[in-house]
Amino acid sequence: MQPAPIKPNVTIDDLDKLDIRVGTIVAVDDVEGSKKLIKLTVDFGDHRRTILAGMKQEREDPQEIRGLQALFVVNLEPKKMAGEVSHGMLFDIGYADGLQPALAVPERPVACGARAG
Question: Per the domain annotation, does 87 fall within a domain?
Fold first, then answer.
């Protein structure tokens, strides 16, 4: 793999606008009519929310991520896709580079809702 060029610099204020939190994936469901999307129910400690991820074809069994902790952006505008509404974004590594994606996960269990940064 040839790494992509580094994107333009951002300020710390730009970075501070992102709210990245640890959540535990408690359910993985199919999004009917979509070839790419799965619906994740994610526990953030004080609440649960639905986050859609375009990973249906990336894994032989999407259920394998149920119970795992991962990093999520939680302050994106809600987005309707395939008749469902997503309330955030799952961080994964490698997809943009044409690699088989891997979840961005904490090195050890941490409290749901803990912030990155």
Answer: yes
Residue 109 within a domain? no
Determine the Cα–Cα distance for residues 35 and 106; give it in Å rounded to an integer.
Answer: 29
Q: What SS3 string covers the chain?
A: CCCCCCCCCCCHHHHHCCCEEEEEEEEEEECCCCCCCEEEEEECCCCEEEEEECCCCCCCCHHHHCCCEEEEECCCCCEEECCEEECCEECEECHHHCCCCEECCCCCCCCCCCECC
Structure tokens given for 79: 């987005």
Strands 84-86, 79-81: pairing is antiparallel
**Structurally, how many domains does the chain consist of?**
1
**Residues 33-65: tens digit of each pLDDT:** 999 999 999 999 999 999 999 999 888 899 999
Global pTM exceeds 0.90: yes
In a domain, 1, yes or no: no
The residues, any chain, with a CB within 8 Å of residue 99's CB and separated by 6 or more, are: 1, 93
In a domain, 16, yes or no: no
